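User: Please predict the structure of the protein below. I'd like the answer in structure-token form so I can feed it into my own downstream comparison script.

Assistant: Understood. Taking the following sequence of 129 residues as input:
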Amino acid sequence: MAKRGKAAYMISAVAHTFKIHPQTLRLYEREGLLKPSRTEGNTRLYTDEDIARLELILSLTRDMGVNLAGVEVVLNMRAKMEQMRRQMEDFVNLVQRELMNREVATDEIKNALVRMSPAHPAPVQKKGT
């Protein structure tokens, strides 16, 4: 069942919008690439997230010539990368909280936590300096 408050589109509207046959959408669902929700009457409903995923699938297949097995690999890798990103973010937040909560944390350590970012790597020290 579709979540309330979210836009949802029927298969015919999605197929028309993307100029694909409804059977293509059904195939993507059978292959596990799309997972639209269903109404009580079993009508497929595509959310904005489903539409974004479909756009990626179509970009991979149409623009890059990736077959459906390759699309599955790409989608799985993206999901794993997103999971790893969240885990890293959680870990960094945990370390920052732990360091900030320590009584012995000096202002220097607190400031170092704020300054550290991937956009500004630490300078490399030259040998002998």
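That's the full token string. The helical segments are 11-18, 22-30, 48-63, 68-101, 107-115.
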